[in-house]
Every structure is written in C-alpha cells, then in structure tokens.
Design goal:
The protein has a domain of 215 residues: Rossmann fold (3-Layer(aba) Sandwich). The protein is 38% helix and 17% strand. The protein contains 15 helices and 15 strands. The longest helix has 15 residues. The protein binds pyridoxal-5'-phosphate and zinc ion.
C-alpha cells in the first residue's frame, strides 16, 4: 500500500535521497525523514477503512514502509482518562478534568521503543541487511533485540554498564550480543559508529536511520483516532532523543496533508530530568540548538541523553507548536510515579512519571486551562525499573 513512500528528505537542508536503498544521515550530518504521496494515501486513509484493520500500528499502512511487517502486536495502546489524577491537579479555580495517560508500557517489551524498532527492523529486513546494532539507554535495546529475533537477524546492543538489569537480561534472552561500556549512551553511539563498517552492522541509532521515527509517529495517529478525529490541546512527552516528539509532530503534518485535520497543533511539552536537560537549557536560553550536557545523571535512564542528534528539530517543534520544555528532579518523578500508580493503577517508568510532575507545575501556573485536553505519555512500564523503584519505595 505504501508505494506511497516517495523519498527521504533531510530535516535540515532539504536534500532528497532514494528510499529504495539503505540510507542513514544526510551529507550535512542531520537526520532524514520519510516523505509520502499524501494525496494518494488520503484516498484510502479514512475512519471507515481504519475500522476493520489490525489493532496494531500497522493499521496506518498508507504512511509506513510497505515491506511485510515484523510485528509483535505493537501500538493501539490504551488512552486512559485519568480522572483521579486530574482531580488532584489544581488549575486556576478548577482542576484538570480532561487528563489522559497514553500507556505505552503495554507495548511488546514494555515500552514505546517497540514501535520504532518494529518499523526500523521491518525496513532493514526489506533492505536485506545482515546485522543490526544500536547504542541504547535501555528500552530501545530490549526492543531492537526482540524485533531482530523475530526477523531472524543478529543484533548487537551497546549499553552503559549501569543500565537497568531488566534491559540487560531481556537483550540476552532475545539472543542479542550485549556490549557494556563504562560511559553514557553518547559513548555507546561512538562505539557503534567506530565498529559498524568493519563489522557490517546496520546502524539503528536514534535518528541515524529514517524509520524509527516512522514507527513512533504512529502515537500521533493513534491520538487522532482515539480522540475521534481530534487532537488534544497539550502533550507531555519525556524527551531523551526526542524521536517520539518529532514523530508525533510529523504525524500531525501528514494528517493535515491528507486533509484530516486543520492547522492547529497540540502544544508539545518536552519533559527532561534536571540531571540531564540539554533541551530545557537551550529552550530557556532561546537557542535553536542544544549544547552537550556535562555529567549527565538521572534514574530515568531513557532521559540520560546528553547530546541528542535531533536537538534542532525538537526545539523547532516546541517553538512551532507554542509548547515549552521543563525539567524535574529524580525525587519528584519517583514521588509522582507513586501518585500515578496509586490513583490510576498505572505503574510507570520514571520517564513517564516525570510528565505528571511537569503537568502539575504547568496546571498550577495557569499555562494549562481547566477545560483543555491534556495527554501524558507513559513511555514505558515501571516493571523494568526495579532498582529505581526499590529505592523509592523503601524511602
Ligand atoms: C521509557 C523511556 N521514555 C522516554 C525515552 C526517551 O525517548 P525519545 O528518544 O523518544 O526522546 C526513552 C528512551 O530510552 C525511554 O526508554
Ligand atoms: Zn542535510
């Protein structure tokens, strides 16, 4: 169906690339984005046709690569109306009545990384690659290892030595080769870059191939479908590499390109940890690109990304959607995780819990109005963070 995929385009300089062969970054060093024939896609992309499709992210076939999907049932995660949590968030003279949690912890391998890896491994398999490799903060490695197993392609996962143990175990169980380094995800990225040519690896690093964004953008399509063809006013997204934020904004542009929505956009809020907040720092200084964040440290391992490659794209999207960026402490996110769990029955990753803190602050400040529809992204399950939660629950 996706003969609709026309080409790849540089997100910075606009240079075009052939989508039928392996591509990574633009010659200018920035990420490539997939472009589709949206007029053609719009012909079959309707609420009516979607009704009868599989309840996975592959239901949006018109705007995804057209190789046979490597799928484990990712996507179509619950959008939970968080009434009790919303009632606890003061907002002017009222409270947040329309607060929702998009629970990505229910994806295969317990995080939204499943979406990106399903799309990336699908396309990599279509291109006939022989081995996959990626640096990871944790969840992306587990997801890559699972989809590589399902595709029958060997995978190498490079992770910081202090990555949560569940992430290490799952990669090993899925049969991937695990390389542990004393360093951060940026060091792991360098390791993959240095070894990939000699070893014949296809580099699946965040934004260094064009299709993880394609998988993650389906979160945006799902919001549109689950809200009955409308979008929320505000989206809180825990931002490490920023792929989900970039992907959702891309989905909204495509939906507009297909005539399914008008020009309004949800205000995107990038939530980071105080111990690693390159985007928040750049946002507050009104800069269009981020500086490397020194000595990055946070228990939200997915947010420990000191130098995100998509910094300019993330900052552009915050500006264009009239959004903002906010940092929270580890202590606050662990406390908020207990609130989310005890009020709503959702046991979140610390990254997801961080959005609760940010929403409470922006509701109290009047940045959010009581009538507005607000979505918090719980990007992963709390079950994989036993080290972090053990400490918090004993405290
Ligand atoms: C649970 C969780 N949330 C958020 C993130 C950050 O994701 P992104 O790269 O899309 O900003 C990660 C990345 O590892 C993660 O594992
Ligand atoms: Zn370029």
């Amino acid at each position: 169906m996706s003969s609709n995929l026309i080409e790849l385009e540089c997100s910075a300089c606009g240079k075009k690339y052939d989508a039928s062969v392996e591509q990574h970054l633009c010659t200018c060093g920035k990420p490539l984005l997939a472009r589709y024939d949206l007029k053609h896609a719009a012909g079959t992309f309707t609420f009516e046709t979607l009704k009868d499709r599989p309840r996975t992210m592959w239901r949006y076939a018109e705007v995804l690569p057209d190789d046979p999907p490597v799928s484990l049932g990712e996507g179509m995660t619950p959008l939970v109306h968080a009434k009790r949590l919303g009632a606890s968030m003061t907002c002017g003279t009222g409270y947040l009545e329309n607060l929702y949690v998009k629970d990505e912890g229910l994806n295969p391998t317990g995080s939204f990384k499943a979406r990106g890896m399903s799309a990336a491994v699908t396309r990599a398999k279509g291109l006939g690659v022989k081995a996959l490799a990626a640096p990871t903060a944790g969840n992306a490695g587990g997801a890559l290892a699972a989809y590589a197993a399902a595709a029958g392609i060997p995978a190498v996962i490079v992770m910081p030595a202090d990555t949560p143990s569940a992430n290490v175990m799952e990669c090993q169980a899925f049969g991937a080769k695990v390389v542990k380094l004393n360093g951060l995800i940026s060091d792991c990225g360098k390791y993959v870059a240095e070894h990939k040519d000699r070893e014949g690896w296809y580099d699946v690093s965040t934004l260094k191939e064009p299709y993880r964004v394609e998988g993650k953008k389906t979160m945006g399509y799902e919001l549109w479908e689950q809200f009955g063809g409308k979008l929320p006013h505000v989206i809180f997204y825990p931002t490490g590499g920023g792929v989900g934020l970039i992907g959702m904004c891309k989905a909204f542009d495509e939906l507009q390109g297909m005539g399914r929505i008008a020009s309004e956009r949800p205000r995107m809020v990038a939530v980071q940890a105080e111990g690693c907040a390159p985007i928040v720092k750049a946002w507050e200084a009104h800069q269009s690109s981020a500086q490397f964040f020194p000595n990055a440290a946070t228990i939200a391992s997915g947010l420990r990304v000191p130098g995100p490659l998509g910094d300019q794209l993330i900052l552009r999207m915050l500006r264009q959607t009239k959004g903002t960026a906010i940092a929270v402490t580890d202590k606050e996110m662990l406390h908020a995780g207990r609130e989310l769990a005890s009020l709503e029955g959702i046991f979140a990753a610390p990254e997801g819990a961080a959005t609760v803190v940010a929403a409470r602050i922006l509701a109290a400040s009047g940045w959010i109005k009581p009538y507005e529809t607000v979505v918090l992204f719980n990007t992963g399950t709390g079950y994989k963070y036993s080290e972090a939660w053990q400490k918090a629950l004993q405290a």
